[in-house]
Amino acid sequence: MIDYLRRLTRTGAAYTTSSVLAKLIAVFTLPIYTRYVSPEEFGQVEILATTVIVLSIFFRLGAIEAVLRFYFLNDEYDPREVVRTGFWGLTITTTVGVAICLAVAGPLAQLLLRDSADAITLVYIAIGWFWFATFYELLLALYRVEERAGAYAAATVINVLITVPLTIYLVVARDMGAIGLLLGNAVGTAITVTGLAIVHLRAGRIAKPGLSLRAPMLRFGLPTVPGEISLYALNWVDRLLLVNIPASRSAGLAAAGLYSIAYKFAQGVTMFVRAFQLAWPPLAYSIKADAEARVVYGRVLTYYLLVTGGVVTVLALISRWLARLLVSDEFFDAYRAVPLVATGVVLYGAYLVLVSAVARMGKTGSLFPVAAAGLVANVALGLLLIPSQGIVGAALALIGAYIVLLGLMYIRARQTLGLVIEWRRVTQVVTVAFVVSYAGEHLLPTDGLEGLALRSVWWLLYPLLLLLSGFFSRAELVQLRNARELLKRARDSKSLGDRPDLVQEVHGPE
Length: 510
Description:
- The chain has helices spanning 2-28, 30-36, 39-59, 63-70, 79-103, 105-113, 119-145, 149-173, 177-202, 214-221, 224-232, 234-244, 249-265, 267-286, 290-326, 338-360, 367-416, 423-443, 448-458, 461-468, 474-492, 500-507.
- By secondary structure, the chain is an all-alpha fold.
- The chain folds into 2 domains: 2-421, no CATH class; 476-507.
């Protein structure tokens, strides 16, 4: 188990490095953007950005998912042919998708933006972004299957360093508003994709055109599309409802803009979940024995919830201060949805573990009805809660939908893999995180440095209550104690490089 956690931590840390940079930049550029972009314009960009991802999932026909799975079936398939089929198949389907979207650009503008200013221009930019964004995910996936997390991190950091200055120039210097915000992201992604394609071609990862494994890869990948698109639609439908439920177009887009700011405030948990999402599938599918996988998957879920529960608790306690520090007054109310949005993000990561258990057994066809049930729950709850509670209602609807998803997918994971979940420890994490967050919000000051200091100290109750309630096993406490001793010995030495014995102990034979 320790070896799997080490691999997951090592690759996840590299993925997190790039994600941390991207998320930190996204957060710390908010004071700039919120001076030049209105909540309504933020709403325009938000709904189009989520639409880009929906289009990408639909038109790639499960190609990236199939590459991630078939690459490790090297006893049956040549990994080079897996990559070749995935790349050229994606070229065909994504290009067809762009042509279709261009043909219906007008209706798309009406559905997504309610004929707001520059709607058709924004939709055209989003369609171009969709083509490049889809290939961006595939080209990065080639690093993921090889667990070349360093190369992955370098590519994503380069993308950030290209996209952010370009976007700031368009928004601030050129005062292009929503168009500048969307165009900067699209052009930055296009430049990065071009560079990555050249690198992969020179390395021989992308062979001449061919679709030799199209039949088995489509059989695996296609059934994942309805489920995945229904799942991501949870994050798309809430924006659509926020835009279209209010009688005023501008009020609806402004609400979507505040909702997008809440997501940016939740970056602390989002970047961790993103790193987990990238690192987990290669590790999950590399475990050969099903008997071992059913236990490892459940233990990983426990540790995942332990870490993310702590992050959500922090965000719940300090979201007001983030809003005061980073955005203008007209965006301040976004703080109300931050802990709920962060909880939804965490539940998505937990869902990924359950999906891996089902997909491992080749039962991807069952993903769609589960995801569809979650989508129906999201729409129903959104229609019920958004009119009275706005962005808070949208976030509550999202959480409710994920609870439905997790319940149904757990039943399926038990039927297929026999997944073993540590229910006692999972319940402890959820209960302690909720109690610390809720009590802190209602008992402690809501402004000033004193309030921030008290809430920061209050958060320490999270690990303390878990420790006192017996969350950690004796073996885990021994491992933590040993890790502290090793780190202390390393600090006491002149340098770690002078102590090869410590290098071996801390990092292991790898």
